Amino acid sequence: MEPATGLEPFFDTAERLVADQGANPAAFALIGDLLRIVAADATLIDESKLDALHQSSAQATILGHGPAGSTLMLGRFSPEAPTPVHNHNSWGVLCVVRGRDRHILWRRQDDGSRMGRAQLEIIETRELAPGDVAWFPDVPGDIHSQQGIGEAAWELVYFGRDPNARPRMYFDPETGRVEERAAV
Ligand SMILES: [Fe+2]
Hints:
By secondary structure, this protein is an alpha+beta fold.
């Protein structure tokens, strides 16, 4: 794991919270408070560090990893199109840094027994402003999509595990198709 310059206290505190309390909404709310402090640093916004994400108009960079493998990512979500509906193989807590973000949480209705097929439903749609926090639960509840509103949304996302370590699932709710591929 690469060093997380300047972010060591964030990772240490966040990983300790989850170790002590579990990956549950109470811990996620406290991690959201920590993310708000990190998000106040305007020097985070640096387009030159971003890589393409999801084969879409979204971009992201990994800011660092904690000792137990948690991962902090900075993403930029264009207003032009939503990200594909995707999973992360991890729970996540997010905080908007700049812009507004439409964040949609999805849930699988099927049992996953049909290869390449999935039926999804929306369980929550939120519009998030700078400093607003949201989270998605661990597998299999880690399915979401998002889009900037009017302008690009910049957002910190903190994952319990490295979301790029394994291929993600990409869902098409219209056709019911699902495929696995790398995020970046
Ligand atoms: Fe995501």
